[in-house]
């Protein structure tokens, strides 16, 4: 299986609800990054959390990191239709420079 | 004012042809990358260059040859294109750092081999 697996693979919610996506990984890391990809578009960086951090916020985004469980979660609060996209976690391994290993992605659909 | 720009965005070509994708970043970064995204949206690193030097070369056929004329450019040349090369190719860049830094991606180049 892959380093970085998101769960769920697909998530459908109503506008205004919160969306939570989880990411698990296997090796020790320097940092973990979350990206968004709209259909047919490039990757947009959302947030980076370092291995010595437990939680970070950016606007409506909240990311947690539990290195003991090798897992991270991305919470989007008060979701909007414009949040509809695929979300990927990516890990930068300890001693591995900046070589990102991506997860399989969560496809989020926010309905009006 | 695009940070990481790559061209062309769409490319349709026949099997056996040779094609190039160009990438430029204006962020002042010293490390650039090529990633490949397959039809299932799985992203995998292909190459990484730091100050024009190759530092990561994953198991990629030698038909793929990256070239970095300077640290702001990393082009990808593909020889003898095959159907399986159809994918989205993303260029990216970052600063070097021991604990890793944010990697910024371009908009992608959609390659279709027919």
Could you please describe the fold and organization of this structure?
The complex is a heterodimer of chains A (112) and B (114). Chain A is mainly beta and 112 residues long. Chain A is built from no helices and 11 strands. In chain A, strands 2, 4, 5, 9, 10 and 11 form a 6-stranded mixed β-sheet that branches. The N and C termini of chain A lie far apart (35 Å). The model of chain A has no long low-confidence stretch (mean pLDDT 91). Helices cover 0% and strands 55% of the residues of chain B. Chain B has strands spanning 4-7, 10-13, 19-25, 31-37, 43-50, 53-57, 64-70, 73-78, 87-94, 104-105, 109-113. In chain B, the strands form 2 sheets. In chain B, strands 2, 4, 5, 6, 9, 10 and 11 form a 7-stranded mixed β-sheet that branches. In chain B, strand 5 (43-50) and strand 6 form a beta hairpin. Chain B is globular. In chain B, 34% of the residues are buried. The model of chain B has no long low-confidence stretch (mean pLDDT 91). Classes of the chains: A mainly beta (112), B mainly beta (114).
Provide a quick synopsis of the model.
The complex is a heterodimer of chains A (112) and B (114). Chain A has 112 residues and is mostly beta strands.
């Amino acid at each position: 299986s892959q380093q970085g697996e998101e769960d769920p693979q697909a998530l459908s919610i109503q506008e205004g609800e919160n969306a939570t996506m989880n990411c698990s990984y296997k090796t020790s890391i320097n940092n973990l990054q979350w990206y968004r990809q709209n259909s047919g578009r490039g990757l947009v960086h959302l947030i980076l959390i370092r291995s010595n951090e437990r939680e970070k916020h950016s606007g409506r985004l909240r990311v947690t990191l539990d290195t003991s469980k090798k897992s991270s979660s991305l919470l989007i609060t008060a979701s909007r239709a414009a949040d509809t996209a695929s979300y990927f976690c990516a890990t930068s391994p300890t001693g591995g420079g900046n070589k990102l290993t991506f997860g399989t992605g969560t496809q989020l659909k926010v309905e009006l | 004012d695009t940070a990481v720009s790559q061209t062309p965005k769409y490319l349709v070509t026949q099997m056996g042809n040779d094609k190039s994708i160009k990438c430029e970043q204006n962020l002042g970064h010293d490390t650039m990358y090529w990633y490949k995204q397959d039809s299932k949206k799985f992203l995998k690193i292909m190459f990484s260059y730091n100050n024009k030097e190759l530092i990561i070369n994953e198991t990629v056929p030698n038909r793929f040859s990256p070239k970095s004329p300077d640290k702001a450019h990393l082009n990808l040349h593909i020889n003898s294109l095959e159907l399986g090369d159809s994918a989205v190719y993303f260029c990216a860049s970052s600063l070097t750092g021991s604990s890793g830094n944010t990697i910024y991606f371009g908009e992608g180049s959609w390659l279709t081999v027919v």
